[in-house]
Amino acid sequence: MSKLPPIYKPGPISAKPLSLLLNDVFAEAYAKQGFAARELVTRWAQIAGPEIAAHAEPLKMQWPRPVEGQPQEPATLVLRVEGPMALEIQHSADVILERVNRFFGWSAVGKLAFRQAPLSRPRRPVRPGPPDPNSVAKVAESLGDIEDEELKTALARLGAAIKRN
User: Fold this and answer.
1) How does pLDDT run across 56-74, given as a tens digit for each residue?
2) Is 49 left (phi over 0), alpha (psi -120 to 50) or beta?
């Protein structure tokens, strides 16, 4: 009698999240910018609030050199701020400091510094609205004889959208 090979049974899948695999890579990059934890950057919108996060983002934290026998001085959080909103964000400095320190659970940040520059994340493109009904009607008149009304309407909307752009 011939012996059959044993049936292969795959073991449990042990897929790991990409964030765990890249944790050490990102930790080193954030540490070079003075961030002890990357959550300040990754959760910035939740910490600072959507109004502030839309126009400012953390760039780095500058820690003063420790003096022996003295308590650690709080850090300076450097924010990248979009040009026109810099003054508004500067007026919100107390609120930002309070929210960041509440996140850390201690007075980690003592002051803010601002760098005016475009934010690093790309803006989402704004989707245009539907075409103007008057331009749709003009395009529909120029289409000629099309028996299917739904097709004619769709072509008119497409033509008006193309002319608008």
Assistant:
1) 999 998 888 888 888 888 8
2) left
The total number of residues written for the chain in this structure:
165
* Structure confidence by residue, pLDDT tens digits, 11-41: 676 777 766 666 666 666 655 555 666 788 8
Q: Who contacts 45 (Cβ-Cβ below 8 Å, separation ≥6)? A: 53
Helix axes 133-142, 149-164, angle to 10 degrees: 120
Distance of alpha carbon 160 from alpha carbon 84, whole angstroms: 35
Burial class from Cβ neighbours inside 10 Å (0-12, 13-18, 19+) for residue 90 reads middle
Cβ atoms within 10 Å, residue 55? 19
Q: Which of 122, 110, 117, 47 is nearest to 79 (CA)?
A: 117
Going 150 to 160 to 137 to 128, the CA torsion angle's sign is: positive
3 strand-pairing partners = none
- Residue 36's region, left for phi above 0, alpha for psi from -120 to 50, else beta, is alpha
